[in-house]
Amino acid sequence: MKYIISAICCLLALQGLSQPMRHEIVSKGILSSTRKSPDVEIKTYYGRDGNDSIVFVNGKLAFTYKWQELPNGKPSLVRFDEKQREDEWHMFTFYADSSFDIEIIAFGAGTISTSRYAKDHRQLYYIDASSDTSWLHYTSSGKLEKIIQSRRGKDTVVYRSSFNKKGQIESIHFTTGPSIGCNENEYGLISEILEYLDEKKKRESAIITKITYEFY
Questions:
Q1: DSSP letter string over the chain?
Q2: Non-local CB neighbours of 18 within 8 Å, separated by 6+ positions
Q3: CA angle 64, 70, 74 (to 5 degrees)
Q4: Strand partners, 159
Q5: How far apart are CA 146 and CA 55, in angstroms?
Q6: pLDDT (tens digit, 9 = 90+) per residue, 20-76?
Q7: How far is Cα 115 from Cα 158, in angstroms, rounded to an integer?
Q8: Would you list the domain boundaries of the chain?
Q9: Is there a contact between 51 and 77 (Cβ–Cβ < 8 Å)?
Q10: What distance in Å separates the CA atoms of residue 101 and residue 143, rounded to the nearest whole number?
Q11: Average pLDDT of 187-212?
Q12: How far apart are CA 178 and CA 7, in angstroms?
């Protein structure tokens, strides 16, 4: 079971690596990111508040996000698919210290995850559908250093970044799963992800995802 969970964490982390983190979107004023892999191109536009706005997949509209207020007064960012059907609800809860939670609820499937964010939009932890809590740890410069998953009273490091002498992320290590190489651009954002299929022939076997950005 732990290997299945680790594999899921690996998949989610890979998806997360392909787009900037919420605090990076806000602090660096990112308007959009475009992720190009051999099979797919995904372009995501962001609001200044760090939320997704519009998503295109291979040039076609895939998702749009609109604010709605629920009957209980909670603000919710609703995701609509390409046919304008409600697909997900992102429910916000704000606290006196300016931290906030975002609960993501899939239509017809229930809660996917609940995340806590600090005032500066840095994600502190998330609780997945299995009620496991994953804590995010950062370097002093705000780069994600490791993720520790708490499950049934046991803590496991499921994600760890390695840095070069310039403080840039150069590789990602998971509890299980493929080895990942990274390159950063001049803005300190990940611009290339290399998923190595063969550890002996890393570059030659790599599935490469390139990421470009637009700014406000």
A1: -HHHHHHHHHHHHHHHHTS--HHHHHHHTEEEEEEE-SS-EEEEEE-TTS-EEEEEETTEEEEEEEEEE-TTS-EEEEEE-TTS-EEEEEEEEE-TTS-EEEEEEETTTEEEEEEEE-TTS-EEEEEETT--EEEEEE-TTS-EEEEEEEETTEEEEEEEEEE-TTS-EEEEEESSS-EEEEEE-TTS-EEEEEEES-TTSHHHH-EEEEEEEEE-
A2: 35, 42, 193, 209, 211
A3: 100
A4: 147, 174
A5: 28
A6: 999 999 999 999 999 999 999 999 999 999 999 999 999 999 999 999 987 777 789
A7: 17
A8: 2-215
A9: yes
A10: 21
A11: 84
A12: 10
Residue 90's nearest CA partner among 56, 47, 120, 119 is 47
Query: Which burial class, exposed, middle or buried, applies to 161 when counting CB atoms under 10 A from its CB (0-12, 13-18, 19+)?
Result: buried
Tokens coding 6: 């680790």
At residue 195 the predicted structure's pLDDT band, cuts being 50, 70 and 90, is confident
What spatial distance separates the first Cα and last Cα of the chain, rounded to whole Å? 44
Chain CA centroid to CA 175, Å: 18
Other Cβ atoms closer than 10 A to 183? 15
The backbone torsions φ and ψ at residue 118, rounded to the nearest 5 degrees and listed phi first, read -80, 175
